Amino acid sequence: MDLIAATAQWLADPLNWQGPNGIPSRLMEHVALSGVSLLVAALIALPLGLWIGHTGRFSWWIVSTANAWRALPSFAVIGLLVPFTTVIDPDLGFTLYPTLVAMIVLAGPPILVNAYQGIAGVDGELVEAARAMGMKESQILFGVEIPIALPVLATGLRLAAVQVIATATLGATFGFGGLGRFIILGDANRDNGELFGGVVLVAMLALATLGAFLLLERRLVSTGLTRRAAG
Amino acid sequence: MNHEPLVRWDWLFAHLGPIADRVGQHLYLAAIAVGVGFAISFALAAISIRRRKLYPAVTVLATAEYTIPSFALFAALVTITGLSILTAEIPLVLYTIILFVPNIVAGFDSVPWDVLDAADGMGFTRGQRWWRVELPLAVPLVVAGLRLASVSTIGLVTVSAILGQGFGGLGYYILDGYQRHFTTEILVGGLLSIALAVVADMAFVLLQRLLTPWAARRAEVR
Predict the structure, then answer these.
(1) Is the ipTM of this complex over 0.90?
(2) Across residues B122-131, what is the average pLDDT?
């Protein structure tokens, strides 16, 4: 009960909600880093996944590589990036870039693999029918394949987003702020309220992200697909 | 950091002993987690296979747990279990369960009904059928779960370095190297922990070949 009371007290303290070390600014840092890395990862992985899904070219190699990347431990990736990013920028290369790049590495594979599987899983007869109707390859991709593959594509983005939000807490160990900072400081200062406050905030942010993506998926996916699945 | 060479080989060669100890600690922490997690997951999977209604609850719990970073779990447990080995093992075991249970359940689901009927028709008892038919046929997906869980656990062991010197395996070098601005240490810790994950992954592929020789033979015939 002490833990819950201490956590509630820390979360309710108005002092913790202001200034550059307050909850709103740490939350913004966390969201900004996660958002940017997700965006960059999507810009690289989505086109690549769609392309190999549509053409089938190099798909085995690229998907295997992406799956191998999935096994890379983020803690090791952040650490390994430090010596190289510090050469580029001694300050931000020591605090921001390692976590940012590691989160891009983390988010890429699920987005790519799902984009590939979504497109490759579209019924070949539908694609042939579209081609026979005289649709161009780009029209087939954007008009037929992507709408049908959308649930799978969205799942990849959702997995990546939740993983990045949760894992970005590691950045606090490597000089980046974000919500992980409260966990580090709470641990160092033996302040359980701050420590568990940080844990609660990260978990809530991850759950909120999960919920937001699920809602968005429901909005975006064509009713034709959901009706077929239901009936 | 800028005036140092990327790798100080003299440091590396002077620390081969401690590095080997850290590799041992890394494997020890990971092996306990995978072993205990596997045992718990097998029980959970067995229950979910018999009582299907429980399975959605298991998956929802697993998803909820996935939103809590390992980093946060390690730090939070210090306040409850102190700096004991439990603090490192509880989160590691929990994360293996998320990966194990769906794979084990899918493994036993993948056994075709006609095969089970044939076994019954041949007069196998339930125990014989489970041991000689269901388990061997479920092995590929169960081993797939072992591969995923061991690779992920080897990665997560590095995070336990935040608990202090007595933890983290090779992660200790990553964190210590970062804090001391000492590149050699970071590279040793980072590259060796990735290498451990790769070796573990290959070891389980080999194990699967040994356990299910018929799978490879069938692929050759085709």
Answers:
(1) no
(2) 89
